[in-house]
Amino acid sequence: MSILRLYIDEHWPEQPSCQWALLGANGLPVSEGHSEPRHWPAAQRCEVLLAGAQSVWLSARLPKASKREQERLLRFAFEDQLVQEPDSQHFRLTDHDGEQARVIVVARERLRQLLAQLAALGRAPQHMQSELETDAPQDGIWQLDIATTHGILRGTGANAFAIDLAGGEVPPALLAAAQTARTATRLPAKLVLRYAPEAPAIDAHAWENALGMPVELGPAYRWAQFAPGTNILQGEFRPAGQGGAAFKRLKAPLMLLGGVVALSLLASLGEVLWQRQQLSEARAKMQTVFRSAFPNQPLVDAPAQMRSQLNQIRRTRGLLGDDDLLALLASVGEALGADARDAVSDMRYEAGRLELTLAAQAAGDTDAIVKRLQARGLAAGKLADGKLALRREIGK
């Protein structure tokens, strides 16, 4: 996809010509120029780098809040740092680390003017970014990106800001920044100058003497090759159809996902209905077997009644019922395994319920023992005094 990037300063559109760059599919400039809109090349997408002092980058404490409350809190938090009324400014949050927030601020009227003019030219931008939020310098140095009449001063851990370079002398703002850093013992190791192609040269030696720090020449300032950052065009300035375009791109995958989910739900519903039918048939068969085996017994709970009758029959023949003491102890022995020897210090049995007090060597593994007992068809659990209580579950 081809991208037309425009470098728009504070004089546009009164001075209609501006720098532009056409980027190819690889993200690198195919052609560059400085011309009026009628000479701008065609492209599939338009992006704007908002140059110079048209925006400011501010920091302040900002508590966490919902998205609905964030706009109001932003205006309140940064009100003292603004010259104009907060309601006349557009705030775009760049990052929010804990309670510290940073925002790009642009005048609403300026944004409206730019967007209206670009839309009239058929070049409505999908992305607009502040020149302040590009190309952070290396740690411990300052970097001054020099355009035609202004520069952008960037420093480690600080928000970049625009500096007026008219006249070629060391700007007072740069002198003040250097003095503040020197007082705080945070003066950088050097100042690196990066020139844009059309930028006028400055006397680096004179600047070095005035600032009291090394001044070096760095690589060229390629404004068109900035890494995409915070898009200013959000909220009321969000490009028309941007959300719709995103939905169109996702429509086919979403429809496919919806079809898969629907089929999965239908399959699950069919399995549940089939299992209910199987359960109903099993219950009917169980009731038939119970009535044929015990014709004179009223049917209340077939599994429990059949188990009770079976235990009675077993006991009349000298056999153990599955809820007798020895049968329950056998299950306990299986659950304890190799640790069964001397694992029980006390027990109490009554009406199919067995209470055990485990010895010290087994008491630390109570949860695992309970799970093993439950796996063997026993209703087992821990009592308040640390004992285990278990009985045979109905139907197991």
Number of helical elements: 9
For the sheet with most strands, the description reads: 5 strands, mixed
N- to C-terminal distance: 68 Å
Given helix and strand content, the structural type is alpha+beta
Number of strands: 17
Query: What fraction strand?
Result: 25-35%
Rounded mean pLDDT score = 83
Main sheet strand line-up? 3-2-1-4-8
- Based on Cα principal axes, name the global outline: elongated
What do these coordinates show?
The protein has 396 residues and is α+β, with helices and mostly antiparallel strands. The protein is 35% helix and 25% strand. It contains 9 helices and 17 strands. The protein has a 5-stranded mixed sheet, with no helix packed on it. A 5-stranded mixed sheet has the order 11-10-9-12-13, covered by helices on one side. It has a 4-stranded antiparallel sheet with strand order 14-15-17-16. It is elongated. The protein starts with a strand and ends with a strand. The relative contact order is 0.07. The model has no long low-confidence stretch (mean pLDDT 83).
